[in-house]
C-alpha cells in the first residue's frame, strides 16, 4: 500500500514509538523508509554573525543529535527483515516546513510522526508540530502516541 514512508524523528524517547511503527509498516509493505531530522534555525539571529563559535556549536550539536537519531532508526531497520533506509538532515527550517517539504521532495506517500501529547492551554496556544504537519501535509499523516 505504501511505497515510501517518511519518519519525522527528533531522537527523543517520545519519537521511539513512531520509529518502531514506521519501521514495522515499511517492513510489512516493502516500503522505502526515509528518517528525517530537522534542526530549527539558529535562534539568536544577529548574534551568530558576531559570535560564529555559537552558531558553529549549534550546527554541530544538531548534526550530532541527527546522527544519533538516525543510528537508532538504522538499528531498528536491521533488526529482522532489512528495510531500505535513507537518512536525511535538514537545517535552517522549522520542523513543520522541513517535514512537509521533505515528504514532497522524496515522494513519500505517508508521514509518520510522534505526538508529544501536549494538552490544555499549551496546545491551544502553541499547537504541536504533529498537528501542524497534519494540517499542511498533502499526504496522509500517521500520528503515533
TrEMBL record:
InterPro entries: Rossmann-like_a/b/a_fold, Universal_stress_UspA, UspA. Keywords: Cytoplasm. It comes from the Bacteria. Residues 1-145 form the UspA domain. It holds the Pfam family Usp. The keyword Cell membrane does not apply. Its main location: cytoplasm. It is found in: Cytoplasm. Belongs to the universal stress protein A family. This is Universal stress protein. The lineage of its organism: Bacteria, Pseudomonadati, Pseudomonadota, Betaproteobacteria, Burkholderiales.
Amino acid at each position: 500500500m505504501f511505497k515510501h514512508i517518511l519518519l519525522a524523528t527528533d531522537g527523543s524517547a517520545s519519537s521511539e514509538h513512531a520509529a518502531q511503527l514506521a519501521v514495522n509498516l515499511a517492513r510489512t509493505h516493502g516500503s522505502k523508509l526515509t528518517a528525517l531530522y530537522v534542526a530549527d534555525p539558529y535562534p539568536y539571529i544577529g548574534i551568530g554573525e558576531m559570535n560564529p563559535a555559537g552558531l558553529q556549536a549549534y550546527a554541530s550539536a544538531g548534526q550530532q543529535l541527527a546522527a544519533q537519531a538516525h543510528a537508532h532508526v538504522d538499528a531498528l531497520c536491521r533488526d529482522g527483515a532489512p528495510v531500505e533506509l535513507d537518512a536525511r538532515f535538514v537545517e535552517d527550517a522549522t520542523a513543520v516546513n522541513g517535514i512537509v517539504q521533505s515528504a514532497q521532495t522524496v515522494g513519500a506517500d505517508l508521514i509518520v510522526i510522534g505526538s508529544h501529547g501536549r494538552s490544555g492551554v499549551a496546545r491551544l496556544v502553541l499547537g504541536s508540530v504533529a498537528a501542524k504537519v497534519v494540517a499542511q501535509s498533502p499526504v496522509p499523516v500517521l500520528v503515533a502516541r
